[in-house]
């Protein structure tokens, strides 16, 4: 078999195996941007640090997205489970639960959980009330502001059972399937339990 | 014979899927009644403690039930629109009834809020969110339009935006107009972001 392989094919095979290992190990590390990924452990650690620094800096500003972009964010490529929290600064239970969510982000991001927060604040608040609240919360997760003229298609695309009540929290496994959802203020212990399960599943898949 | 293990596996997978689904949702709110379902008469007190039944408040051409709140900014953004709706349709035989389901907002607050915001339609206090539960309501504002026979013909938002300048579709008014014209309602449900009902 190997006699029939050209060097180019062998090269591709080696690259494929190496990429597979990197992807598997990468999925256990915190989210690192492609630029920060490195084959050595030392630079990977550095990359992780700079990623955290960037995350802190970035999270105080929310990025406006449309419904299509939101659906893109919810898609999974098989590497990380995803936690999504829909909230707004005008929503009292959202504000009340946010410290718990920041703690959960800090606790699980290093274990491979992606977490994004999507605010339904007005676009006019994107540079005022939203970053002010995120700074107060010391939020570290990426934050987006869903800017749509008609919320109906976005709500329905997320979950048929959801009528749009805030806050709402969804946990997806690494295949993009909803494994846990909660409408109203989260129960932190219940959410942690669901996250532990989905993280365990991911690790089993990575090390069969 | 070969099919047996396959069938067993399928049954097992279905069972797992059902059990899995049951675990994914930690919300206890029942599903809302289907469009076309008849809403059973109920009685709730107003902010002064006086009881009113749905049938005593209903309009001859229908009734709009709106779950509203004292402190929810989305519900409050609709105060003027809700009052205008009540005024516009009073003479046309459709009554508007507000219901406050929040355990955090006592009757005294509901009364004060209605006075301050000049809400003249009746507002009932849904103590223990019993009616919110039976109608599967999850947020404020959330509306249910019942026809003259208390059949649910529309459930959902008032319109597409809490910002009145951004409104370009008014599903609730469309449902009222269709019903008054004797036509079927084109869009029977529509969602919008709102405040979670603070259940007891």
Summarize the structure.
Chain A is an alpha/beta fold. Chain A has 7 helices and 7 strands; from the N terminus they run H-H-E-H-E-H-E-H-E-H-E-E-E-H.
What are the salient characteristics of this protein?
heterodimer, A: 208 residues, alpha/beta, Glutaredoxin, globular, B: 200 residues, 10 strands, 34% helix
CATH topology of chain A: Glutaredoxin
CATH architecture title of chain A: 3-Layer(aba) Sandwich
Q: Judging by the overall fold, what is the CATH architecture of chain B?
A: 3-Layer(aba) Sandwich
Mean pLDDT of chain B: 90
* Residue share in helix of chain B: 25-40%
Q: Provide the succession of SSEs of chain A.
A: HHEHEHEHEHEEEH
- Rg of chain A computed from alpha carbons, rounded to a whole number of angstroms: 19 Å
**Alpha-beta classification of chain B:** alpha/beta
Measured between the Cα atoms of the first and last residue of chain B, the distance is 55 Å
Q: What order do the helices and strands of chain B follow? A: HEEHEHHEHEHEEEHEE
Structural class of chain A: alpha/beta
What portion of residues of chain B belong to β-strands?
Answer: 15-25%
Stretches of chain B where pLDDT is under 50 for at least 5 consecutive residues are 12-25
């Amino acid at each position: 078999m190997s006699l029939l392989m050209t060097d180019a094919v062998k090269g591709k095979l080696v690259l494929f195996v190496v990429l597979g290992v990197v992807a598997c190990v990468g999925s256990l590390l915190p989210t690192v941007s492609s630029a920060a990924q490195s084959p050595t452990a030392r630079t990977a650690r550095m990359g992780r640090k700079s990623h955290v620094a960037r995350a802190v800096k970035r999270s105080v500003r929310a990025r406006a997205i449309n419904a299509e972009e939101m659906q893109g964010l919810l898609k999974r490529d098989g590497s990380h489970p995803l936690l999504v929290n829909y909230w707004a600064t005008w929503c009292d239970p959202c504000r009340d639960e946010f410290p718990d969510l920041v703690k959960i982000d800090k606790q699980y991001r290093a274990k491979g959980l992606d977490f994004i927060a999507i605010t339904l604040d007005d676009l006019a608040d994107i540079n005022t009330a939203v970053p002010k609240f995120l700074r107060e919360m010391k939020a570290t997760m990426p934050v987006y502001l869903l800017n749509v003229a008609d919320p109906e298609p976005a709500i329905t695309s997320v979950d048929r059972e959801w009528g749009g009540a805030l806050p709402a929290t969804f946990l997806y496994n690494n295949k993009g399937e909803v494994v846990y959802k909660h409408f109203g203020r989260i129960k932190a212990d219940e959410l942690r339990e669901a996250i532990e399960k989905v993280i365990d599943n991911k690790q089993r898949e990575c090390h069969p | 014979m070969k099919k047996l293990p396959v069938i067993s596996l399928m049954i097992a997978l279905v069972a797992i899927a059902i059990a899995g689904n049951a675990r994914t949702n930690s919300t206890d709110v029942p599903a809302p009644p289907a469009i076309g379902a008849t809403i059973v008469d109920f009685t709730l007190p107003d902010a002064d403690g006086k009881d009113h039944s749905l049938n005593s408040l209903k309009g001859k051409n229908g009734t709009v039930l709106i779950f509203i709140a004292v402190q929810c900014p989305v519900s409050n953004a609709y105060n003027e629109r809700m009052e205008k709706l009540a005024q516009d349709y009073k003479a046309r035989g459709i009554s508007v009834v507000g219901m406050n389901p929040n355990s955090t907002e006592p009757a005294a607050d509901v009364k004060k809020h209605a006075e301050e915001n000049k809400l003249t339609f009746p507002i009932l206090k849904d103590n223990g969110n019993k009616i919110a539960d039976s109608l599967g309501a999850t947020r404020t504002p959330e509306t249910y339009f019942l026809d003259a026979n208390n059949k649910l013909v529309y459930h959902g938002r008032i319109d597409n935006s809490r910002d009145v300048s951004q409104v370009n579709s008014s599903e609730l008014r469309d449902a009222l107009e269709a019903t008054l014209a004797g036509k079927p309602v084109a869009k029977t449900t529509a969602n919008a972001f709102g405040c979670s009902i603070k259940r007891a």
